[in-house]
Structure formats: C-alpha cells, structure tokens
Amino acid sequence: MTRKRRADRRLDLIAAAHRAIIRHGTEGVHLNHVAEEAGLTSGAVLYHYPNLSELLVDAHHAGMERFYEQRLKRISGMRDPAEKLVVTIRSGLPHGPDDPDVRLLNELGGAAARNRMYALLLTTLYDRQVSMYQSVLETGSALGTFTLSGDSLLIARNLVALEDAYGYRITARHPVIGPQEAAELILTYARTATNNPLKTSH
C-alpha cells in the first residue's frame, strides 16, 4: 500500500468517525461504529489508527477546519473590510438544522466538561475565531471603514458568542431563527459595533 493510499484511507476513516460521532455521540461512539461507517473490520480501522481516541480527536479537528481555516482562506483575497466582516459572519453559521459540522461541534461541546482534550480543541477554536474577527475589525478601523464602538477584542468575542448562540438555535430547530435570520441578527449588532451599514446582497 502506497503512502498516498494510506493517507487517503486515514481521511476516509476520519469521515467515517465524523458520521459515527453524529449518530452515536462523542462519548457513545465505539470502534465497531466507526468500522461500520467505513465499511471495514475493526482490525482494519486499528491498522491505520491504533488508538480510537486519536481518530476521534482528528475527526473533531477536521470538522472544525470549516470554522477557521476555510473561513480565513475565503476572506484572504477580499480588500473591503465590510465585505470581509459580512462573509465571516455568514460563513460561521449552520447551513440548516442538520448541518453535520455544527452537529459535530455540539457533540464536542457536550463532552468537553469531561474530556480535557475536547475542551482544549473548543478553546483553541474559539480563540482563533476571536483573533480572526479582531483582525478584520482592526483592519477596518485602520482604513477608516469602521469606527469601532469599543475595544476590538470585546467586539470580536461578542461576535463569536452570538455565532455560537444562534448556531445552536438553528440546530435546535427554532421555528423563526434560520441561517438568514441569524445572520441578520448578528449583523445588527455588528453594524452598531462598527458604525458601518454592512450592506449585503440578500
């Protein structure tokens, strides 16, 4: 088996673990669940991941990439801080109540109080998201696009907190809060915090 094929197999197992966690919960998932999702024997899973805990951590980390690495990449080529902020806000919310990446984060959050590694993953993600927002805010302030109502760090923390709160409401199937409504609610705060209309095409 080539090194590339081994790497591909590990990616397949990470995806299978992702599905198994959503189906059985972070603390309820077992090796046989991952094997079933991957269409492999338990031994085949252990060949690539001798430690199930390591596989579960990798699955959680991969699910988090969308909420930092991919967002950062998406806005990196944008020049307008206002556009960057709007896109950052919209891209941090679930696509809908069954969004698998957000459901994975919810599972992780439920287990974090009892697992230090999961708590560290969530804390790291939160801090990186705050830093991402803070960078957009401070760039906008330096360019004169934003007139911040307060400290950039506090505004950034509030934006991430709103993102988390409304994201949970979406996955909990709140009858009047979907992705568009949640984005507009967060943007309402962001407009006040930046003194910018943050116009959107929607």
From TrEMBL:
The lineage of its organism: Bacteria, Bacillati, Actinomycetota, Actinomycetes, Streptosporangiales. This is Transcriptional regulator, TetR family. Residues 30-49 bind DNA. The keyword Transcription regulation applies. GO terms for molecular function: DNA-binding transcription factor activity; transcription cis-regulatory region binding. Keywords: DNA-binding, Transcription, Transcription regulation. It comes from the Bacteria. Residues 7-67 form the HTH tetR-type domain. Transmembrane segments: none annotated. InterPro entries: Homeodomain-like_sf, HTH-type_TetR-like_transc_reg, HTH_TetR. The keyword RNA-binding does not apply. It comes from Streptosporangium canum.
